[in-house]
Every structure is written in structure tokens, then in C-alpha cells.
């Protein structure tokens, strides 16, 4: 096995593992599969953690995870798939950040690992064992990487920023309530 073959096999394993995990998490949100709560349950939960409107937030997170994860696993539209998944994981990390880094304490470790791996795959590309390669990289051009990552970063910053303001406002209201 040549070093080039090893690289392609390594990228395939990263794509399958990361994409599979993301797709399963998204399917929990959208369809209630794998012990998830489906779109209705996830909508209420998203509202409770500050992402509003809940249904639109649940749909966006579910589609980014399911779609991004599936496309990453297939190695198709890799820049967009990796960026979408990374954006969803940045939103998840924002929820877990107050709990510190480590997952056993409810921290952002897991979301960060999935997000960084997704972003890394968007940057490196899918390798030769991919649909992008089979389709001559029509959906995996060099210019697509910065466009996809920048677009996702901007959208994620807006959504997470709005959530942060909502959470701060709710905390301030709760602190004032006992004195009203």
C-alpha cells in the first residue's frame, strides 16, 4: 500500500466515522430515530436552550447534521458538507460551553471534536475513495472551501449570538422576578 493509498483510506475512515455519527444525531432530531425525540420534541428542547424559533432551529440543526453527515460519509460536496456539520457543532458547543471542556461534565469536548474533524475534512477534501472524486470534483473546487466555511461561520455567528443574547435576557428576567 502506497502512502497515497493510505491517505485515501484514512480520509475514508474519518469521513465514514464522523459523517455516520453526525447523520445519526441529525436523524434523532428530525425523525426520532435511535432514541431521539423527533422534530416536535427537539423543537421544544431548542426553545428551552435559547434557540428560537424552536422548530426552525431543530430543522436547521437536524438537516445540517443529517445532510452534512451523509454527504461527508459519501465524500460528496465535501466543502459544503463539512462546513454545514462544523456550523451545527459550533452551535452545539455554545450550549455546552458553560459546563467546561470535558463531556462527562456536560462540556463541549464532543461537539468540538466533531466540528473540527468536519472542518478539517472540508479543507483537506474527501480523497480518491469518494463520490467527489468519481464526479471529477464538480462539487469540490478549491474556491468552494473558503466560501462554504466563511458563509457557515457568518450564519453560525449570527445564530449563536442571537441565542446568547436571548439566554442573557432570560437570566436577567429570572433574577429580577423575585423582586417584582
From TrEMBL:
Membrane topology (UniProt): Multi-pass membrane protein
Keyword annotations: Cell membrane, Membrane, Transmembrane, Transmembrane helix
Pfam families the UniProt entry points to: DoxX
Residue ranges crossing the lipid bilayer per the database entry: 71-95, 107-123, 143-162
Keyword Cell membrane: yes
GO CC annotations on file: plasma membrane
Main location: membrane
InterPro entries reported in the protein's UniProt record: DoxX, DoxX-like_oxidoreductase
Family: Belongs to the DoxX family.
Protein name, UniProt field: RpiR family transcriptional regulator
Organism: Streptomyces ruber
Phylogenetic lineage: Bacteria, Bacillati, Actinomycetota, Actinomycetes, Kitasatosporales
Amino acid at each position: 500500500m502506497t502512502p497515497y493509498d493510505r491517505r485515501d483510506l484514512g480520509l475514508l475512515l474519518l469521513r465514514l466515522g464522523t459523517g455516520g455519527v453526525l447523520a445519526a444525531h441529525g436523524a434523532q432530531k428530525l425523525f426520532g430515530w435511535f432514541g431521539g425525540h423527533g422534530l416536535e420534541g427537539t423543537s421544544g428542547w431548542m426553545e428551552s436552550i435559547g434557540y428560537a424559533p424552536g422548530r426552525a432551529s431543530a430543522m436547521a440543526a437536524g438537516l445540517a447534521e443529517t445532510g452534512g453527515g451523509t454527504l461527508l460519509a459519501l465524500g460528496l460536496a465535501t466543502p459544503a458538507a463539512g462546513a454545514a456539520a462544523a456550523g451545527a457543532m459550533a452551535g452545539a458547543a455554545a450550549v455546552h460551553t458553560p459546563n467546561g471542556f470535558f463531556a462527562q461534565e456536560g462540556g463541549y469536548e464532543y461537539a468540538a471534536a466533531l466540528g473540527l474533524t468536519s472542518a478539517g475534512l472540508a479543507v483537506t477534501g474527501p480523497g480518491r475513495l469518494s463520490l467527489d472524486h468519481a464526479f471529477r470534483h464538480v462539487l469540490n473546487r478549491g474556491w468552494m472551501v473558503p466560501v462554504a466555511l466563511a458563509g457557515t461561520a457568518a450564519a453560525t455567528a449570527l445564530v449563536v449570538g442571537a441565542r446568547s443574547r436571548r439566554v442573557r435576557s432570560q437570566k436577567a428576567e429570572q433574577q429580577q422576578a423575585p423582586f417584582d
